[in-house]
């Protein structure tokens, strides 16, 4: 049942060298730089996003994800969810207004898989980049690189998938759109949605807590995925796999790495989910096909290369 | 412009490979199809390409501290995707 969580709002990614990271995220991936703060963090967004930013890069000495945040519909919803989280054993920390430039107060908590999640209701809304909200043109001139339209989801690896399932479904109001289940009935992967997208966050079972697999950005069509692959080759950027299709969600995709070793995805297409839809299930012995629909075989990297 | 090429020996594997100063050790290994080290993110973030340097000069780009601590760095550990030779080298594959 929906609880007022609307969409992925932001992700803060750790990078080893900011200048090198920016040439990847802005020139190649095609995010737009919108701000910087005193800590040296750089704020980026995709052009169709109305909020001020969706990706924050922080330079430090290890790669990975600091946290990811979801936007809820209003401040009273935020307060209600904050109370419920605390009552049900997920202690929250309040991150004050403005700790991220242009963002309202955030409520941070740890998921059972060890990842830091946030909820927030308010963020400055300068509107789509380069497009007026009145009589808008189809797209803005001057976009760079792969020209993604939005930050779409992230895939995270961790141990306690059952714990995450109850947090995301019972408290945060997500639906389980797709899953991978082993013969004993244990969940090997869960794809969760708070919208009608195939996934707004996904988790894969893994021994360690708090691992980051990828941040994903939406492209319009298969031609754009192919063009992204061309750009990856032109710039000698490390590629993981693709262009190909996922079995899970049926998205058309390519995976590659940023200069600090964090995985990125750009993708298009795929399934949709409404609250009355049954969960789509893949059997674990079909995992190869579930992940890479054409190869029907996992590459070793998919399961082991994480930040 | 031609970059100096160095000979890299593997202490615990048969054989050696060539690597120029613009290529990471991982790139050198792969270009000669030597499967002594796993390739992952190629960006110093995932740690799967870890090796130990026993001998030789090199230049190193930034690596995730999570995978190579200061102690390990002193013991010659490093990520082969981030190490660029500046002389002939001897390295050890870990696994
Ligand atoms: S391949 Fe990931 S650290 Fe070298
Ligand atoms: Fe994805």
Descriptive notes:
- The complex is a heterodimer of chains A (307) and B (95).
- Chain A contains six helices and 17 strands.
- Chain A has 307 residues and is of the alpha/beta class.
- In chain A, the strands form two sheets. Chain A has a nine-stranded mixed sheet.
- Chain A is globular and about 50 Å long.
- Chain B is mainly β and 95 residues long.
- Chain B has two helices and seven strands; from the N terminus they run ββαββαβββ.
- In chain B, strands 2-1-7-3-5 form a five-stranded mixed sheet.
- The longest helix of chain B is centred in the first third of the chain and has 7 residues, at 25-31.
- The chains are: A alpha/beta (307), B mainly beta (95).
- The A-B interface holds A 16-17, 61-64, 238, 257-263, 300-301, 304-307 and B 38-46, 48, 62-67.
- Bound molecules: FE2/S2 (inorganic) cluster and fe (ii) ion (FE2).
- The site of FE2/S2 (inorganic) cluster has 12 residues of chain B, from loops.
- FE2/S2 (inorganic) cluster binds at residues 39-42, 44-49, 79, 81 of chain B.
């Amino acid at each position: 049942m929906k609880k007022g969580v609307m969409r992925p709002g932001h992700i803060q990614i750790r990078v080893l060298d900011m200048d090198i990271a920016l040439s990847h995220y802005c020139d190649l991936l095609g995010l737009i730089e919108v701000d910087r703060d005193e800590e040296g963090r750089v704020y980026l967004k995709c052009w169709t996003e109305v909020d001020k930013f969706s990706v924050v890069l922080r330079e430090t000495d290890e790669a990975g994800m600091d946290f990811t945040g979801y936007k809820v519909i209003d401040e009273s919803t935020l307060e209600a969810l904050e109370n419920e989280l605390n009552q049900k054993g997920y202690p929250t920390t309040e991150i004050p207004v403005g700790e991220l430039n242009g963002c309202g107060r955030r409520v941070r908590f740890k998921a059972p898989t060890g990842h830091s999640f946030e909820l927030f209701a308010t963020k400055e809304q300068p509107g789509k980049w380069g497009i007026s909200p009145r009589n808008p043109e189809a797209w803005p001139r001057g976009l760079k690189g792969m020209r993604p339209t939005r930050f779409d989801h992230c895939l995270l690896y961790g141990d306690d998938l059952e714990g995450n399932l109850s947090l995301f479904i019972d408290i945060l109001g997500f639906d389980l759109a797709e899953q991978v289940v082993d013969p004993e009935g244990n969940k090997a992967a869960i794809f969760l949605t708070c919208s009608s997208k195939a996934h707004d966050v996904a988790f894969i079972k893994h021994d360690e807590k708090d691992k980051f697999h990828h941040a994903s950005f939406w492209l319009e069509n298969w031609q754009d995925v192919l063009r992204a692959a061309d750009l990856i080759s032109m710039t000698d950027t490390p590629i993981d796999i693709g262009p190909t299709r996922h079995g899970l969600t049926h998205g058309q995709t390519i995976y590659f790495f940023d200069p600090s070793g964090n995985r990125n995805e750009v993708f298009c297409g795929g399934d949709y989910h409404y609250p009355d839809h049954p969960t789509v299930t893949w059997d674990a012995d079909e995992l190869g096909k579930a992940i890479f629909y054409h190869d029907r075989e996992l590459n070793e990297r998919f399961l082991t290369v994480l930040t | 412009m031609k970059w100096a090429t160095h000979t890299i020996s593997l202490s615990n594997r048969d054989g050696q490979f060539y690597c120029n100063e613009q290529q990471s050790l991982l790139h050198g290994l792969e270009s000669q199809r030597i499967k002594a080290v796993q390739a992952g993110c190629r960006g110093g973030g995932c740690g799967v390409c870890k090796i130990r340097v026993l001998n030789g000069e090199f230049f190193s780009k930034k690596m995730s501290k999570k995978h190579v601590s200061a102690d390990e760095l002193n013991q010659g550990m490093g990520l082969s995707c981030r190490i660029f030779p500046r002389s002939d080298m001897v390295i050890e594959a870990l696994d």
